[in-house]
Amino acid sequence: MLSKSRTKIADALRSQARDTEITVMGWVRTKRGNKNVAFIALNDGSTIHNIQIVAEPERFGDELLGRIATGACLRVAGVLVESQGSGQPVEIQAREIEIYGEADPATYPLQKKGHSLEFLREIAYLRPRTNTFGAVLRISHAMAFAIHRYFNDHGFYYLHTPLITASDAEGAGAMFQVTTLDVEKPPRTEEGRVDYSQDFFGKHTSLTVSGQLEGELGALALGQIYTFGPTFRAENSNTPRHLAEFWMIEPEVAFCDLEDDMNLAEDFLKYLIRYALENCADDLAFLEKMYDEELTARLRSVVENDFVRLDYTEGIEILKASGVKFEFPVDWGLDLQSEHERYLVEKHFKKPVILINYPAAIKAFYMKQNEPDAEGRRTVQAMDVLFPRIGEIIGGSVREENYDKLKAKIDAEGMSEEELWWYMDTRRWGSAPHAGFGLGFERLKLFVTGMANVRDVIPFPRTPKNAEF
Ligand code: 4AD
Ligand code: MG
């Protein structure tokens, strides 16, 4: 009886051992051969590479080999030998084959021919079995691990902020409601409005758009924290960069000013990209070959160059002087669209850009207010990191720590202090200068993998009219 203990295919391919018995388990990518020998390419997810199984019909019989097709799951025990063919260091001469699960070629949707990314989205429950999604998902894991490692090594604490919230952190108003009320027949107050005091939490609640406000509470006690969790936005933006459910990493640091915040963002992003280059070489090489021939060159260029740091006001001047006919207008006071961001990064500077000091009117209420400029215009200490191909990858700011200024802003925006009393209290007791930012995890993965659509870097995308799987 041959060993049942499993060797991962990544380890088998790396192994220096020869003529030893091993057992591998995995899914068939392809089977080819003739009446004398069958070659099965087996993949178990531990690497982009397959291991070649050599099986003789004489030993296994045509019936068993006939049941093995693309997608089937096998246990194969055999002898690891130097490969006879080119293209792989080793192969396995099969001694035992057990079929765990067959896959009928007449119905199994993934065949060995390449499929379009659009088609694979429709079968997102199976696409992890493709080379592309195997690579994307392994890189995704590596990035999540590197994020935790970076913060741990830099003395940040991982804080879990709530997903269900009664406040709107970004003031954008595009939130998913959370309720256990009967939406067909909700209880009503005497004035005829929905009576949320009878709802599960006794008030109106939603899924959070950001962990920042609670993150600030943590930073004002632990010094430096980060969050890493799902966030939800009900905005109806059907773009290659927006998801309704995405993951955000939000560091928040006490005693930190705008320059410290920019330094942290730049160092953090470079660390993550360097980590991918050093640890995901096989998967990056595959994605480069298949989708984006400039991928690793672009990643290297970001790691090796200083990011440009630029005032919003100067950015507007550059865009106006560019002579380019943009789809959306450019004027002081207007928010930048991704075409503007990408012009600055890809055409003008050819490097990542950190744009700072945006007009107060287009940014969230919590951002630290600057003194009005020479022309009396009001700006805040915001910072957006703009990347090639992506546009905004990070949004952050220094936070307004002055109670009176924050209160005036909340009143001016018609926000409710009743909702935010606990946030305001931090400015009453032991307030401190502090800053932070949010990195969109899927935007980071878009950049690192070179994929073009954010739906292809998260296993199960949530977008308008789409919550399958
Ligand atoms: O710029 P945003 O809205 O900033 C915040 O939420 C702050 N509370 C962050 C902070 O200062 N702690 O979002 C931060 C980042 C964006 O730069 C972008 O990368 C990503 O989150 N993001 C999205 N990613 C995918 N789909 C969406 N709909 C996204 N909205 C924002
Ligand atoms: Mg933003």
Précis, in short:
The chain has helices at residues 9-14, 57-66, 117-122, 131-153, 212-222, 258-279, 281-290, 295-304, 312-321, 338-349, 403-412, 417-428, 441-449; strands at residues 20-33, 38-43, 51-55, 73-82, 90-101, 157-158, 164-165, 177-178, 205-207, 224-232, 245-254, 308-311, 353-359, 379-387, 391-398, 434-440. The protein is α+β, with helices and mostly antiparallel strands and 469 residues long. It folds into two domains: 9-101, OB fold (Dihydrolipoamide Acetyltransferase, E2P) (Beta Barrel), CATH 2.40.50; 128-174 and 209-456, BirA Bifunctional Protein, domain 2, CATH 3.30.930.10.
Instruction: Specify the CATH architecture of the largest domain.
Output: 2-Layer Sandwich
Radius of gyration: 27 Å
> Looking across the biggest beta sheet, what order are the strands in?
6-10-11-16-15-14-13-12
Tell me the distance between the termini. Answer: 40 Å
Task: Lay out the secondary structure.
Layout: H1 9-14, E1 20-33, E2 38-43, E3 51-55, H2 57-66, E4 73-82, E5 90-101, H3 117-122, H4 131-153, E6 157-158, E7 164-165, E8 177-178, E9 205-207, H5 212-222, E10 224-232, E11 245-254, H6 258-279, H7 281-290, H8 295-304, E12 308-311, H9 312-321, H10 338-349, E13 353-359, E14 379-387, E15 391-398, H11 403-412, H12 417-428, E16 434-440, H13 441-449
Parallel strand pairs: 3-5, 6-10, 12-13
Antiparallel strand pairs: 1-2, 1-4, 2-3, 4-5, 7-9, 8-9, 10-11, 11-16, 13-14, 14-15, 15-16
Helix pairs in contact: 4-6, 4-7, 4-13, 6-8, 11-12
The structure holds 4-amino-1,4-dioxobutan-2-aminium adenosine-5'-monophosphate and magnesium ion.
